[in-house]
Amino acid sequence: MRVLRPGQRAELFIVDVETGERRLVYESSALLFEAPNWTPDGKHLLVNAEGLLYRLPIDGGHLAEIPLGGIPPINNDHVLSPDGETVYVSADDGHLYAIPFATGLPRRVSNDHGDDFRHFLHGVSPDGETLAYIGLRTEAGGAVTTNVFTLPVSGGEDTQLTDDPFPNDGSEYSTDGRLIYFNSERASANPGHAQLFRMSTDGSSVEQLTHDERVNWFPHVSPDGERIVYVSFPPGTIGHPADHDVIIRLIEPDGAVRDLVSLFGGQGTMNVPSWSPDSRQVAYAAYPLRS
C-alpha cells in the first residue's frame, strides 16, 4: 500500500479551467489520499486512502470515511453512478463492487475470470447501466495484457472491446454514451509512449487524439462534452508512476491543447473522473516533497 515518503505531503486542489486559479481544499502529511471524484451534486469530493474511501466537502473540512461493508481494501479506481447514489470501486481482490450510500451493503459486480485476471474500473455510462473497465490478464510465462471491457452493472456477460498486445488503460465514456475514451501505446513502437484515443462502444472506429512526445494518460471528458483533461508524463515514462513532474493538460473544443497545471504527482493525481458538474473546475492531487 502506497504511503507518503519522508518530508512528503498530499494536497487536494481544485483548479478553474478558464482562469487557471487554484484552491487548496485539503492537505495531509500523514495520509496519502488519491484520485478525487466530484459528486454529481457538486458538494463533495471522494478520495481513497490506505484501502478506504472518504468524503470531503469542497469547501474543506475533515475527511469522513464512507462505509464499504467489509470488502477487501480498495485502490484508486472508483467512480460514482450518474445519480450519485452508488459508488463503484476496484478492490485488491481484483473485483469490482457496487456500494449504495443508503445501505453501505456491497454487491460484487464483476464476473470471475480466474486468478490471473484483475478488474480496474474507470467509467460508468451516462445512463448508469454499464461500467467500462480495464481487464488485466497475466499470461503463461508472466506476460501481461490490458484490454478495455464493459460490463452491465446489474450483472451479465462482459464485452471485450480491445484485443491486442498494446497496453490500454483509463477507459471512460463520453457524455452521450456513444464513445469510450482511453489511453494506449498502440501508436508507437517505443515502450511506454501512451497517447489518447477514443472508439465506438462496440470497439470500432478507433481515433487517436494526441500526437506528441509526452506520455499521456487518463482522458476525462467534461460533463458538457466540450473538453478533455488528462495527465501528461515526461517523454520516456513507462506506465503511470508516482512521484514525477507531470502536467495536467486540457484539450479545448477546437482541438487545441494547453497546459493547465504543472505539479509533482502522477499516480493518484487524477486516475478517475474529476470534473465538477458544471464543467468549470477539475479536482486533482499533488504530492510535493519538502526541499
TrEMBL record:
Similarity comment: family membership: Belongs to the TolB family.
Organism whose genome encodes this protein: Occultella glacieicola
Protein name: Biopolymer transporter Tol
Superkingdom of this protein's organism: Bacteria
Residues that span the membrane, as ranges: none
InterPro entries tied to this protein: 6-blade_b-propeller_TolB-like, WD40
Matches recorded under SUPFAM superfamilies: DPP6 N-terminal domain-like
